[in-house]
Amino acid sequence: xxxxxxxxxxxxxxxxxxxxxxxxxxxxxxxxxxxxxxxxxxxxxxxxxxxxxxxxxx
Length: 58
Description:
Elements: H1 5-47
């Protein structure tokens, strides 16, 4: 193994790890917003009496 390549490889891995962390944080923020939106929609439907009963007969 070429010893001089190790620091560059380590830096590349650190950079990739940081990018992955950023992507994961962004995804979590989007999922939180989606969950909040769905909760708001569910509350609006409930306030209007919609979605309270389900007709299972086709």
